[in-house]
Write a structure and sequence with these properties.
It is found in: Cell membrane; Membrane. This protein has 346 residues and is mainly alpha-helical. The protein contains twelve helices and two strands. Helices cover 66% and strands 2% of the residues. The chain has a two-stranded antiparallel sheet.
Length: 346
C-alpha cells in the first residue's frame, strides 16, 4: 500500500511539474511561432536562442508590484485567479499519460486517477473554471473587466453545449466514460474489435470539439473576453504581478489539457501505429506510447498557435451565431446519425 501511495505521489508531482513546464515554454513557443509567421526572429536574448526567456518572464511577474484597486472587492479579486489556476491543473488528473508499466513485479498505470466517469469529471472541472474569470472581472469593479467577464461566461456556456453534444456521439460509439478505456479501445484493447483512431469514425465530432476547445480556452479567433483592441485586456485588465500570471498560465494549461484530451479521445491517446507488432518489451512500448502521446499534444499546441496568428477575431454576433445556429444543430444531427448507424450495424 505504501509503495502505491509513493508511486501516486511521484506521478502527481511529475504531472504537475510537466504541466507547468509545458505551460511556461508554450509562451516561448508562441512568440517563436508568431515570429516565424511574421518573418521575425523572436526572443533571442535570454540564453541560447532565447531559451531562458520564460524564466525571465517568470521572474518579472514575481518582481512586479502587486496592485489591488481600492474600489475592488479585495477577497474575490484574489480568489478569481486562484480558481482559474486550480481548475486548470485539476483537469489533468484523469488523463491517461501512458499504458501500464511494471516496476519490481508490480504493475502501475500512468494515470493519477482512473475513474469511470472521467469525461464528466473533466467537463465539471472546466465548467467551474469560468467562475474564476467571472469573479475576477466582476470583483475588479472596472467596466472593461466586467464586459470581458460577461463575454467569457456567455461564450463558455454557449460552446460547452456543442462540445458536450459532440462527446455524446463519441460515448455512444465507445460505450464508456473512462478516458483510459477510450484510449485502449483505439489500440485494440478492452475487448474492442477495431484498431482505429476515433477521428476516423467521428470526423464531424472532432471538428466541433476542436472549435469548441478554441472557444473554451479563449484563444483566437474566440478571444473576445480579452480582446485588447476593444476591452484593454478584458477580465484581467486590473490585474498585475502573479495574479495576472495565474490567468495567463491558466490559459496555457487549459490549452495543454485540451490538446491532451483531443489526442486521447480522437487520436489514439498513448497508442501508436504497429505497437502490437514490434515485439518489444511492454515497458518500452509504454515509454514509446507516452512519447507519441506528447508528440500529438505538441502538434495540437502548435495548431492552437498557428490559428492564432492566421485568423482574425470574430465579431460577438458571429461568435454567438456559430455556437447556437451552426454547431449545436450540427452536433445534434451528428448524435442522431451516430445512433442510427449503431442501430443499423447491430
Amino acid at each position: 500500500m505504501s509503495t502505491f501511495l509513493i508511486y501516486k505521489l511521484a506521478l502527481v508531482l511529475a504531472v504537475f511539474g510537466i504541466t507547468l513546464l509545458v505551460a511556461m515554454y508554450s509562451t516561448y513557443l508562441e512568440r517563436k511561432v508568431a515570429a516565424f509567421m511574421q518573418d521575425r526572429v523572436g526572443p533571442d536574448r535570454a540564453g541560447p536562442f532565447g531559451i531562458l526567456q520564460p524564466l525571465a518572464d517568470g521572474v518579472k511577474m514575481f518582481m512586479k508590484e502587486e496592485i489591488i484597486p481600492n474600489v475592488s472587492n479585495k477577497f474575490l479579486f484574489i480568489v478569481g485567479p486562484c480558481i482559474a489556476m486550480i481548475t486548470a491543473i485539476m483537469a489533468g488528473v484523469v488523463i491517461p499519460w501512458g499504458n501500464t508499466i511494471t516496476i519490481g513485479g508490480e504493475t502501475y498505470t500512468l494515470q493519477i486517477a482512473d475513474i469511470n466517469i472521467g469525461i464528466l469529471y473533466v467537463f465539471g472541472v472546466v465548467s467551474i473554471g469560468v467562475y474564476g474569470i467571472m469573479i475576477g472581472g466582476w470583483a475588479s469593479n472596472n467596466k472593461y473587466s466586467l464586459l470581458g467577464a460577461i463575454r467569457a461566461s456567455a461564450q463558455m456556456i454557449s460552446y460547452e453545449l456543442a462540445m458536450g453534444l459532440s462527446i455524446i456521439a463519441l460515448i455512444m460509439l465507445t460505450g464508456t466514460l473512462s478516458l483510459r478505456e477510450i484510449a485502449l479501445m483505439q489500440g485494440g484493447g478492452v475487448g474492442s474489435d477495431w484498431n482505429m483512431w476515433n477521428v476516423v469514425y467521428q470526423p464531424v465530432g472532432f471538428l466541433m470539439f476542436i472549435i469548441c476547445a478554441f472557444a473554451e480556452c479563449n484563444r483566437m479567433p474566440f478571444d473576445l473576453p480579452e480582446s485588447e483592441t476593444e476591452l484593454v485586456g478584458g477580465y484581467h485588465t486590473e490585474y498585475s504581478s502573479m495574479k495576472l500570471g495565474f490567468y495567463l498560465f491558466a490559459e496555457y494549461i487549459n490549452m495543454f489539457t485540451s490538446s491532451a484530451l483531443m489526442a486521447t479521445l480522437y487520436f489514439g491517446g498513448f497508442n501508436f501505429p504497429f505497437q502490437n507488432d514490434l515485439g518489444l518489451d511492454p515497458n518500452l512500448v509504454t515509454i514509446l506510447g507516452t512519447v507519441a502521446f506528447f508528440l500529438k499534444i505538441g502538434f495540437f499546441i502548435f495548431f492552437f498557435m498557428w490559428v492564432r496568428w492566421t485568423l482574425p477575431r470574430f465579431r460577438y454576433d458571429q461568435l454567438m451565431n456559430l455556437g447556437w445556429k451552426i454547431l449545436i444543430p450540427l452536433a445534434i444531427a451528428n448524435v442522431a446519425i451516430t445512433g442510427l448507424v449503431k442501430i443499423l450495424v447491430k
